[in-house]
Amino acid sequence: MAQSRLEKIGTIFTRVQGLLRGSAMKAEDKPIWYDVYAAFPPKLDPRFDRPAPNVPVRNIFYAEDVVRAKLHKHNKPTETISLFDHKRSTQSQQFVQIYENLRAQGALDEQRIYETALDLLAEQRQQAKGTEAVEESLEETEAKSTLLSDFQDAGEQQQITTTSTPASKKTKKDYAGINIDSLFKD
Amino acid sequence: MLRKSFNNLPRLSQLCGLQGRLQSTQVAPVEPAPAEPEDIAAIEQRILKHPDYFQVHNLFTVRDLFNARVHYGHKEGSLDDRMRSYLYGSRLGHLIFDLDKTAAHLRDALNFAAHIAFRDGIILFFNRNALNAHLVEQKAMEAGEFSHTRFWRGGIFTNANVQFDAVTRLPDLCIFLNTQNNVLAQHTAVRDAAKMAIPTIGIVDTNCNPNLITYPVPGNDDTPAAIELYCNLFKEAIWRGKRKRRELLGLPPLEEAKPSKSAGRRFEKN
Amino acid sequence: MALRVFGLNIIKNNRNILQNVGKTNGVPTNQGAAAALYATQVTVEAAPAAVQKQKVSKAMKSYLKRANEHDEFMKTQHLEFQIGKRHLANMMGADAETFTQEDINEAISYLFPSGLYDKKARPTMRTPDEVFPARKAAEFDETGRPFHSMFYTAKPNFFQLLHDIVEETNKLNDLEERMLRRGNKPDENQKLETAGFQLLPKEHLERVLVEQIADIEYQNFSNSMERLIASPYAYKSKAFIERFLKPLIDQSKQLEVPKPKIDEQGRQYITTYECLRKTARADVTVRLPGTGKITINGQDISYFSVEQSKEQLLFPLHFCDMLGKVDVEANVEGGGTSGQAGAIRWGIAMSLRSFVDQEMIESMRLAGLLTRDYRRRERKKFGQEGARRKYTWKKR
């Protein structure tokens, strides 16, 4: 069978086309994909030497990334997350929602919103724990309560440190003009 | 034990109602049948004028792709520059595909596969990822087509007449569910298919080279959920082509192998 | 005669059937039209909207050509075999019609005596069907489309097997999962016993699959089979697993100790036949209780004049501390003194197993008393004095 095996030259279509035009390949030996390819050519020619496009890869960031990063930087997340559980929202999701709600009310400055949101989150968790305790068995709630309390402890400690030490004031200032990239680096 | 239980979780495609969509949709309305039976070759040419004769555009939605985690790429460091135009961006170092572009490419690929199946072409599925090998073999069987998920002995295409001790018809379309042998090397069959002028459809991840693939589909080629989605889509597209052909030729419809959901339950009856 | 007529009829009938089929295939539309003429309400099958030109692929064409060539070749081979058989029958003065394969073998070994060691190297005459290996049937249809889904792997049967193993394993995993959720446990009584079995060895598997497989592929096979067998619910796929298990050579049978019989005087006795050593052959009877009387070919132990042979004979009795407690009768022929003594020794040891406890049998085995000694005389080599000894070497 007439054939060109040079895959680095042209495309499979142009090679077969050349053979057909030069009648090196008979019309009845035409491969069955030929007409389909002609009718629906691919978006780009499948050439071996097709140059790579010079397109920069942009970074994907969201507005709430700033506050989320802040949350994670100062609170070590201790909860266990099931990736198959789509119903339950994670603590950071809840936090972001509370934060957004507070900010929409627009009464407080950034730092205050952050602190109130943390408090509210802890409160919400406490309530959720209460309802869950009624519904679910003892063992499970025990496990959850430890996780929750850890988080609360961490949050309280955080507040103590922020109010007491002078060094924390410095970090507070940084929060305002926080650089997201630098936050995610470490 | 944990891993075993993952296999049992309901597949995402079932959750988002893809299954129903696969079954409910139909082939485009046929033109009034001519009085005289005409040569199938003429019909093959005629249906090429229809932009989407097998209605593959309604096989899936972008949300299906998203739910099957098609948008996840590899990390930035392993990016192949030729994949840049298919990307949406990079989220904290992880590349994310632009699913609109993926969907457009996937529809082209499905349409092509359906047309090849309509023309009674041989379609060969490839996959070198051991995690998904069984799934791909299974789906290829259900589609009534062929699969090669093992070590590629050089020369199966380029030296076929010697390898099989006979003149052998090569496949008319290769579908690569992943185009890499491992993270470093491309599957040799991609090159061999290009050599032998066999068109290819390939799922290309961010670390793959899409140049030699005739119909590249940018997307995640590792996750079993994504692979299952691709397999189901290609299977349905192929079946649409085949069903139409048999219908036109007046042949009885083929027995379609249903996915063996009840296979596991067989034991309980014993 | 009747049979032949009957066969002809069958052929005729077949032809008729074939013709009918041809008709129905030839004019499907006419029949539909005829039916429409005569019936008012008939569900006429929709006439096909398209027809396909029958195209035979290149692959099928070349296969058909090769198949034809092969058939021709086999035909001539068969003819030649028949002629050869007739000649052979003539030479042997037998009837050519009733000359069987056994007769052929006999005639060949008579007419062409061969001292070649390997039996495969000796002259033979067998039907061409046996001599030429069966050829693979076509693996694809007229359009060249292969039948097997994994045809392009070049080892479809093997990879299909691997696929099936994974299928079974997945099923068992699913089952295990469901059972765990329900709190059920696998049935201990039904547990799959694979102790006395081994996986099919590579050569055997290759024969079953009709494919050559590489070592690493066999490794893959055995790994996945082991994983399947290790599943706690493996007994559910027993039928599948047992297809690839082979019973180990039954050693327990050889180690099975025969029960002693009782003779006229009420004594227990056991006879071991075919006690072999070198070219000697003996059968040995041991009787309990006894006085230590030893009879060899009607004589006592002085049958052997050499001291070592006597020691050989008595060693198993001494080892089991049965000296003077049993009587031994032996008939021995062939071989020399030491061969005969060795044969009797082995016979006594084998017989004594019936009169001692399990522990003693085990220590007898460890002492090598129950092991057949397969050593034979080594041949003399030319240029040497004996098997190993060289001629005396003189410098000049």
Keywords, separated by commas or semicolons:
heterotrimer, B: 270 residues, alpha/beta, Rossmann fold, globular, disordered N terminus, C: 396 residues, alpha+beta, Ribosomal Protein S5, domain 2, 3 domains, two-stranded antiparallel ribbon, 13 helices, 8 strands, 47% helix, 10% strand, extended, structural constituent of ribosome (chain A), mS23_dom_met (chain A), mitochondrion (chain A), ribosomal protein (chain A), Small ribosomal subunit protein mS23 (chain A)
Give the percentage of residues in beta strands of chain C: 5-15%
Work out the radius of gyration of chain A: 30 Å
Proportion in helices of chain A: 55-70%
- How would a textbook summarize the main sheet of chain A? none
Structural domain tally of chain C: 3
CATH architecture of the largest domain in chain C: 2-Layer Sandwich
Number of helices of chain A: 8
- Average of the residue pLDDT scores of chain C: 82
Largest sheet of chain C: 5 strands, mixed
Following the backbone from N to C, one meets helices and strands of chain C in this order, namely HHEHHHHEHHHEHEEEEHEHH
- How many extended strands of chain C? 8
Largest interface: B-C, 49 and 43 residues
- Name the overall outline of chain C: extended
Which word captures the global form of chain A?
elongated
CATH topology of the largest domain in chain C: Ribosomal Protein S5, domain 2
Radius of gyration of chain C: 36 Å
Order of helical and strand elements of chain A: HHHHHHHH
Oligomer: heterotrimer
Poorly predicted regions of chain C: 1-45
The amount of beta strand of chain A, in percent, is: under 5%
The tally of beta strands of chain A, per DSSP, is 0
Subcellular location (chain A): Mitochondrion
Protein name (chain A): Small ribosomal subunit protein mS23
Region (Disordered) (chain A): 150-172
InterPro entries (chain A): mS23_dom (IPR059242), mS23_dom_met (IPR023611), Ribosomal_mS23_met (IPR019520)
